Predict the structure of Flavodoxin family protein.
Amino acid sequence: MTTPVVSIAYHSGFGHTAVLAEAVRAGAADAGATVHLVDVGQITDEQWELLDASDAIVFGSPTYMGTASGAFHTFAEASSKRWFTRAWQDKLAAGFTNSASKSGDKLHTLQFFTVLAAQHGMHWVGLGLMPGWNSSTASENDLNRLGFFLGAAAQSNNDQGPEGVHKADIATAEHLGRRVAEQARIFVAGRAAA
């Protein structure tokens, strides 16, 4: 059985998104994937090659002013070299984001990631969880407590550092990592069988 390779291409402005990237990494590794963390704010040629060789790429960024960070946008624009050669065609893709507000226009960041993935010809993997914390018997400690379907979304208070990332959001990011790794394993096995 081939071990899937999952890379997490992320930017973190104040450390909150890095906590989520590490959670995605842990979930994917727990599911048996080989995982690479790539900080797109200081990406190297070797890291571009890691992304090219991956079965799945998970995009991550804080949501600033309703979209991904400037550093992530710079990475996305630089990925056009891969677009020209179709280097990421038929890879899996997923995403996660964080902002201080419960909504904070995080959906727009996740949608930005899906369009980026679609332009590269990638296949999007959603969160695969029902929403949590949406009934009188629910709790802020539920997985997917903010109720996103497209990817993992987290809320971190703007007066707290990375230690303030909510445990349920960390667990949701771990779930995303496991899901991507599991889907990548199926995808790789299917490609090998075809």
